Amino acid sequence: MDENKTVHLADDDEDDRMLLREAFEEANPGVNVVESENGRELIDNIKNSDDLSDTVVVMDMNMPQMNGLEAIEAMKSDPELAEIPTVMLSTSDNPELAKKALEAGADEFITKPNNFRALIDIAKRIFGKFFA
Known about the structure:
CheY-like_superfamily; phosphoprotein; Sig_transdc_resp-reg_receiver; Response regulator receiver domain-containing protein
């Protein structure tokens, strides 16, 4: 996989961010992972990026200040950010939550797995779908 790919990753759990970053780096060693602790910081980080081509946003649902649904809605209402692919990751496998995320504009809803190998597989799937 080539370089110059960016994953904006938002999760309020530091351990989850670390595992997700490592999974994305394992799936594509050249990836640039930009971490955020909440949706508001995520939006700021995206807006401060020089180049949004080859960018995907991966975010948790439950975060302080601005949760995942609010962050997706903010992105999709901003013409500069509306076309950036977004993936919602959640520990919940509630179909209603998935429906809300997709209705808000998420391109995909994925339930967080409980092992690192599955996280790497998810990272590879995200790269294959959004960076093909």
